[in-house]
Specification:
Order of helices and strands: EEHEHH
Number of helices: 3
Helix content: 40-55%
Number of strands: 3
Radius of gyration: 30 Å
Strand content: 15-25%
Oligomer: single chain
Number of domains: 2
Largest sheet: 3 strands, mixed
Strand order of the largest sheet: 2-1-3
Structural class: alpha+beta
Shape: elongated
């Protein structure tokens, strides 16, 4: 009996519940016939498999435990990235202002030295 696991991932920021069908292995494609076409085998695709159980879970695989505990939805990740870009731009603007204020006194000293010559 094969199980279809429905994974409920909950965002740690906004508590959004994302539902994902978890498949541990990809099914093998049906074999090709002489014409190069795929033969449809109902047992290989599981179309008529009556013994499939649907299981709802918070963590379908123990290896995903850490990933599941810190998961953030796409909108929260995008918002965080946007905030990071805005902060980086602000820091760059402040640095450029600092560089301009540091360059002004140096230029004025050089100009004074040229005027006295």
């Amino acid at each position: 009996m094969s199980d279809i696991k429905i994974w409920h991932r909950i965002c740690v920021v906004c508590k959004h519940d994302d539902v994902v069908q978890y498949t541990p292995q990809l099914p093998t494609p049906p074999p090709e016939n002489e014409k190069g076409e795929n033969e449809k085998d109902e047992t290989a695709t599981g179309e008529n498999d009556k013994s499939v159980a649907v299981v709802h879970t918070d963590c379908p695989d123990p290896s995903l435990k850490d990933t599941n505990a810190n998961w953030q939805c796409r909108s929260c990740r995008s918002a965080m990235a946007l905030e990071g870009h805005k902060l980086q731009l602000k820091m760059m603007e402040e640095r450029s202002q600092e560089m301009k204020t540091m360059e002004l006194p140096i230029r004025s000293k050089e100009e004074k030295g040229q005027e006295t010559r």
